[in-house]
Amino acid sequence: MLIRLVSFALAACVAFLAYAPTLRAQPETTWTSVAKIAVGNCEGGSIAYVTERPGVAHFRLSFPDGRQYAEFDVTLAVDGSGKAQFTATISGNVVNFEIVPGTGKRLLKTFGVTRRCDYTWTPK
Fold first, then answer.
1. Count H helices, E strands: the chain?
2. How do residues 64-92 score in pLDDT, each as one tens digit?
3. CB-based burial of residue 44 (10 Å sphere; 0-12 exposed, 13-18 middle, 19+ buried)?
4. pTM
């Protein structure tokens, strides 16, 4: 009986080890998104450069002329959504950031805290 139990446990471990690399091997995806003003009298056209891995997305935000004004990570929930707050390096504006549920290219939203400029970001 003990030999049968040990054999079963060993087989389960081997099966898990064969499957585990596929869990970690989910590919990194990169994409961009362009800002369009939703509320406020602000310029649009900023670009978000996104690198997404399971559980986290890295964002780098730049003006259309290429000047970067924010870089941050967002921890993603199981459904792919996430929220963060950042301070724009050029203007000093505090901004709430949101990524909607899903995977890969999807809608982003920003809401100005210190200056009312709300944007929706459409993936390219």
1. 1, 8
2. 999 999 999 999 999 999 999 999 998 89
3. middle
4. 0.75
Which tokens belong to 39? 């509320």
3-state helix, strand, coil in the chain (%, to 5): 20, 45, 35
* Token representation of residue 47: 């670009």
Return the bridge partners of 72, or none: 59
- Per-residue confidence (pLDDT) for residue 21, from 0 to 100: 46
Using alpha carbons only, what angle is made at residue 23 by residues 20 and 85, rounded to the nearest 5 degrees?
A: 140
Q: What is the largest CA-CA distance in the chain?
A: 75
Per residue in 29-55, pLDDT (tens digit) is 999 999 999 998 888 899 999 999 999
Alpha helices in the chain (DSSP H): 2-24
